[in-house]
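Let us work through a complete example step by step.
Step 1: write down the sequence.
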Amino acid sequence: MESVMRRLPQVLAVSGTLLFVATSFSAAAPLNSMNEVGKALLACWNPPANSKGSSVTLIFSLKRDGTLIGPPRPTNISVAGDEQAKKHFLDEAVAALQHCTPLQFSPSIAQGIGGQVFAIQFASPKKDSLTPTN
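Step 2: predict the structure and record it as tokens.
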């Protein structure tokens, strides 16, 4: 009984690690369509405060393993405010894209995705959802 008690912390640590690994793998199901890829990327987006009606379109390419090929580049920036506000909004959009990758693709998507150029628009709502309308 004493040897079991001494080994209990090791057994619990291994069990916890296996549970974590199993949970991580099941939570990240492979993406099967470009629509799912877009939704996965936008799920990482949290618009900066006070950026109502702003947007930025980024172009980027992905490798078959779901990582970015180089940094994303802006093609259209529509942000109210000064240059600092525009830079902050752009930086947040780039960070969201980088944070979301690598993505996990199904074999059919992975086969054709490598090196393709994609565009995605990160936007803020045009008005606060908490602001009452008249």
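Step 3: interpret the result. Confidence is low (pLDDT under 50) at residues 7-27, 128-134.
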